């Protein structure tokens, strides 16, 4: 049985160690010092957009960012789940050259951001890979 790695995640990366990430996180007015990265190895992998509605003081938000053009597109609650009453998460495939940032609120405070990127974009974005 072939077990192909579809996604790998690194947690608690420091913004100061990755200068190319700063302009990306500025697109969502991110103020925290750390972030997570999820690298997608399978181009057919779909990222599930879940938790885009308020629940107990927490909510996920999703923003597509094109780092080269420094443009951002914020996804609405309807874009993510189809809205009330079903709240079925939608899946999106990440286009090459773009990243998807999951951010929002957790227990009433800004949540830690996770940047989803394709493996072929990883080196260009995280130019100080250890």
Main attributes?
130 residues, mainly beta, 7-stranded mixed β-sheet, two-stranded antiparallel sheet, 9 strands
Write the layout of secondary structure elements.
Elements: E1 7-14, H1 22-26, E2 34-40, E3 46-49, E4 59-66, E5 71-75, H2 77-81, E6 90-93, E7 99-106, E8 109-110, E9 114-118, H3 119-125
Parallel strand pairs: 2-9
Antiparallel strand pairs: 1-2, 3-6, 4-5, 4-7, 7-8, 7-9
Low-pLDDT stretches are none
Query: Helical segment tally?
Result: 3
SS strand fraction: 35-45%
Q: How many strands in all? A: 9
Q: What is the percent of helical residues?
A: 10-25%
Shape: globular
Q: How would you classify the helix and strand content by structural class? A: mainly beta
Gyration radius, rounded: 15 Å
Summary of the model, kept short:
The chain is 13% helix and 39% strand. It has 3 helices and 9 strands, in the order βαββββαββββα. It starts with 6 loop residues before the first strand and ends in a 5-residue tail after the last helix.
Please tell me about this protein's structure.
By secondary structure, this protein is mainly beta. Helices cover 13% and strands 39% of the residues. The chain has helices spanning 22-26, 77-81, 119-125, and strands spanning 7-14, 34-40, 46-49, 59-66, 71-75, 90-93, 99-106, 109-110, 114-118. Strands 1, 2, 4, 5, 7, 8 and 9 form a 7-stranded mixed beta sheet that branches. The longest helix has 7 residues, at 119-125. The chain starts with 6 loop residues before the first strand and ends in a 5-residue tail after the last helix. The model has no long low-confidence stretch (mean pLDDT 84).
